[in-house]
């Protein structure tokens, strides 16, 4: 029987600040930070964008996640069989629909970086979405159970 490996990733403000420093070195004329919060944009936000803006947002997130995975040294791991649990800790107690936190752009970045082979049903066997509240440390915690 194959051993189970658990990989815990935490996407928080420290990760964003590190990426923003990198981003502004790469794009010295840029004025706006590319990723504002350590949680995936709500599906209600990005699904109504015009196609060009949606693609721009998706690309910003993909670039960010590829940077993060490389920074962690997890690129080219090519995980083949896994489950994921995403827990998004919001900065307010405002009601949040769990299904609006779907991490599409994060998963695309995981694939692009080589961390996972793909986020299709052959490789990603289950995806659990949870929400929580943490005023002082909003973040996204990602638990990957590798089988």
TrEMBL record:
GO terms for molecular function: magnesium ion binding. Gene3D superfamilies: Holliday junction resolvase RusA (3.30.1330.70). One of its GO terms (biological process) is DNA repair. Pfam families: RusA. InterPro entries: Endonuclease_RusA-like, RusA-like_sf. This is RusA family crossover junction endodeoxyribonuclease.
């Amino acid at each position: 029987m194959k051993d189970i490996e658990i990989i815990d990733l935490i996407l928080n403000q420290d990760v964003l600040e590190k990426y923003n420093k990198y981003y502004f070195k790469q794009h010295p004329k840029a004025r706006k930070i590319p990723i504002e919060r350590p949680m995936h944009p709500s599906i209600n936000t990005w699904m109504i964008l015009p196609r060009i803006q949606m693609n721009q947002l998706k690309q910003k997130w993909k670039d960010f996640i590829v940077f993060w995975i490389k920074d962690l040294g997890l690129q080219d791991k090519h995980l083949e069989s896994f489950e994921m649990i995403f827990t998004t800790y919001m900065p307010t107690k405002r009601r949040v629909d769990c299904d609006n936190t779907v991490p599409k752009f994060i998963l695309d970045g995981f694939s692009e970086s080589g961390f996972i082979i793909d986020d299709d049903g052959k490789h990603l066997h289950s995806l659990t979405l949870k929400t929580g509240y943490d005023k002082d440390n909003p973040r996204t915690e990602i638990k990957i159970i590798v089988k």
